[in-house]
Write a structure and sequence with these properties.
Layout lengths: L2 H22 L1 H4 L7 H8 L9 E5 L5 H9 L5 E5 L3 H10 L5 E4 L6 H5 L4 E6 L8 H14 E11 L5 H7 L3 E6 L6 E7 L14
Parallel strand pairs: 1-2, 1-4, 2-3, 4-5
Antiparallel strand pairs: 5-7, 6-7
Helix pairs in contact: 3-4
């Protein structure tokens, strides 16, 4: 089997796993297709992952973000990746063998328990906030704010701007970008809890 055939087979398996998860838990997944690599890179470009020491991902899905994050991290970084679907979590943990990565099958609401007193320089989230129950959505955003280092950034991808009012309740300032090549087009947010004029680990493209 050629490398191209192997990559195609792996891609199809990941998409099938994603679709099964979407059918079983549509409100948790919130999309009918994995995020494109263009949108993933656009989002991660909004934070300087090369300088980050502790990184958290909310909702790893099939690991599209996880792979790109690992490419950008320094060798000493710690990467906690949360996924509430046990099948998706197991699949990503089995495929991405990296000593920096810890895949956690738990809700992002519990992020602080796994940080063990540390703070996150970058939090990456593609959770479908608009389809989550309001209480869960606010719990996750509140946990993210508490988990962030003072100079940290939370990077959020969504398919609408509906979540913006909730983001503004927990974060300021918030910078926005648009990723038109994704299907559907994606809205990207970089959320801070500190002075935007300060030089920070999470500083990215305006």
């Amino acid at each position: 089997m050629s490398r191209g055939q192997a990559d195609l087979g792996e891609n199809l398996r990941r998409r099938a796993l994603f679709l099964r998860s979407m059918i079983a838990n549509p409100r948790r997944v919130g999309a009918v297709w994995p995020t494109s690599r263009w949108a993933v890179r656009d989002l991660l470009d909004m934070g300087d992952l090369h300088r980050a020491r502790t990184i958290v991902e909310f909702g790893i899905g099939t690991g599209v973000y996880t792979e790109e994050v690992l490419k950008r991290l320094n060798p000493d970084a710690v990467f906690l990746a949360f996924e509430i679907d046990p099948n998706l979590a197991s699949a990503v943990a089995a495929r991405l063998k990296d000593t920096r990565l810890r895949v956690i099958n738990d809700s992002a609401e519990n992020v602080e328990a796994y940080l063990e007193g540390a703070k996150a320089d970058i939090i990456v989230s593609s959770l479908p906030f608009t389809s989550l129950p309001a209480g869960v959505r606010r719990n996750i955003l509140d946990a993210a704010r508490r988990a962030l280092a003072p100079a940290g950034r939370m990077l959020v991808l969504q398919y609408s701007t509906t979540v913006l009012s909730d983001l503004r309740h927990f974060f300021a300032p918030i910078r926005r970008r648009f990723s038109p090549l994704n299907i559907p087009p994606a809205f990207l947010f970089s959320c801070s809890v500190s002075d935007p004029s300060a030089e920070t680990i999470g500083e990215g493209t305006p």
